[in-house]
Amino acid sequence: MNNYETLLEGGKHWSLAINRGVGLTLEDVEGGANLGMLLYNPSNLLERYNAPDTLKCQHTLRLTRGHCLYSDMGRIFCSIIEDTLGWHDSIGGTADRELVRRRWGILSYQQARNGWTQNGHDAFLIEAAKYGLGKRDLAANVNWFSKVGVAEDGALSFDPAHSRPGSAVTLRFEMETLLLLHTCPHPLNPAPLYPRHPVRLSLFEAPPMTDTDVCLNACAENRRGFANNRLYQLCSGVQ
């Protein structure tokens, strides 16, 4: 049963701190959504999501069920325990003001109110500032519901029809985590009009991990990551 639910409309941003043991389901309500996410340790904001380590230690380009999201200190922020889509991006980055200006034009809040053309980089900075973070604290982010492929020559390709209405992914948080979120367009999205697709967020008490857990047993690296979490919780007293 969900304990809290909210709808993050397209082109918006939000942030929240989530306790260990909490589950978060993200749902692409209309299809075509992009949810940018950055993760930090609220007890030590120097610890944040590390995309290269997350991908290379699990031998993957995409994120899906069974994968974990790692910090730059070798700990696991959260595990992907359910996924109806099968591919989420963590190499495409986020769009900045200049990219949005060239592709869709700039409409300010003063001009268009809620119809303004926000970009992911500035959206992250607005939320980051609430916690004393700035430009130097931004890192490579996750883009939930987006699919970016890589050709043999290294060219990146974006699949605009990848995420269907109702696509959902569920995360279980393995340590206290600060999330910065936005629903601004993916930087590779070729849509002729500025895309605005909402994402539903549902928070709940996640079932505890068992010895047969799909994320724990996905690879030896994940077992070491969970061991790092246990040591951190034992020595720091932080949940």
Give an account of the 3D structure.
This protein is α+β, with helices and mostly antiparallel strands and 239 residues long. The protein has one domain (15-236). It is 19% helix and 29% strand. The chain contains five helices and 13 strands. It has helices at 51-57, 97-104, 109-112, 120-129, 220-236; strands spanning 4-8, 13-18, 22-28, 35-41, 44-48, 68-70, 76-83, 142-144, 148-150, 156-158, 167-173, 177-182, 199-205. The strands form three sheets. It has a six-stranded antiparallel beta sheet. The protein is globular, with a radius of gyration of 17 Å. The two termini are 23 Å apart. The model has no long low-confidence stretch (mean pLDDT 96).
Q: Treating each run of at least 4 consecutive H or I residues as one helix, how many helices?
A: 5
**Subunit organisation of the chains:** single chain
Query: What is the H-and-E element order?
Result: EEEEEHEEHHHEEEEEEH
The computed structural class is: alpha+beta
Straight-line distance between termini: 23 Å
Give the biggest beta sheet: 6 strands, antiparallel
Strand content: 25-35%
- Number of separate domains: 1
The side-by-side strand order for the widest beta sheet comes to: 1-13-3-11-7-6
Percentage of residues in helical conformation: 10-25%
Query: Which outline best applies?
Result: globular
